[in-house]
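User: Show me a protein chain along with its predicted structure.
Assistant: Here is one chain, sequence first, then structure tokens.
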Amino acid sequence: MARRLPLSTLLSFALVAFTVEFDNEAEHRLPHRTSDEGGPSSAPWLISLAMYCNCLQWVPEQGIAIRALERQARTRPNWDGMRRWGYIYYAPDPSDPRPRPPQATWLAHTTAKGRAAQELMRSLLPEVEQRWRERFGEAAIRNLRAALIAMLRTVPSGLPDCMPILHYSLVCEAPKERGNPAPESGLASLALPVLLARVLLALALEFEQESPVSLAICADILRVLEAEGTLIRRIPALTGVSKESIAMGVGFLGKRGLVQVLSQEHARRGRIVLLTPAGIEVQAEYPQRLRRLEERWNVRTGPEATSALGTALETLAGDGTREGSPLFQGLDPYPEGWRAKVTKAPATLPHFPMVLHRGGYPDGS
């Protein structure tokens, strides 16, 4: 049976679901505070898995130079956020004799709260993966890991352990240094979300080399826009991503002349997004670009590899909706969690992760 959804979409479903389950458990176990729920003023701000993967996991007890951490992480953390939120601090290296050393040479250290979060999150990665083995079956996770590793055998090394933070245009930032594909022995030791993120990022980077619009915007905004116009307030429910990330994406599309936004006086029920002729063209090209991309990967990795990955992902992800995806079995938050207090729980997983500077949540929250 032909696969109904693109590989990038299925990868996103799995990665977002793993991240949300991880985040719910971390929130439950760690002291924290949030803007809506409050919390002890001494507690650190709540963050998502991406902020551990792109920053916290790389800070050793003795500290590390900012430049060196970015080289190891292969992506740029939200330095100021991680400092303000209480996880790290950084200062000039006391052994550096220069009166004003560049900030890239400063040493980053974890705070006591950062070390506690670091220790817990490190242990949570294998714990949540073990939950998936118990929930979906050992064979399903083994097949998924094997299929992801088979794909990465042909991908240049140097990809980070998570999706990069998306900025204004929501484009994935490519690592500065890429090398030969990593040996399989090294890939086998990686956590499941790292494998998922690296394959998805490799697909996104290749897609964005030839697309005028990022994969995040195509998958999570352009895909759902209707010819007769779409209410902006409906898009979060249609896509599973936050209104803040939708606002960023729609603003970018408007400046590129791909959509028009009708103001309140023209739309009594709220602002409406209308595709321009150029936007209609880009929207129509999106699935075609994904098909061509997968065809290239079929040639590069062999059709058996992409087919195996699609089958393994479909087994877990289904159609990505609350009614049609087994992944939702692990997504119910703890009663005290911030996701439990959301007015309306998401009905679908995002077709692409929206990792923003706001805390790294995979749906842009």
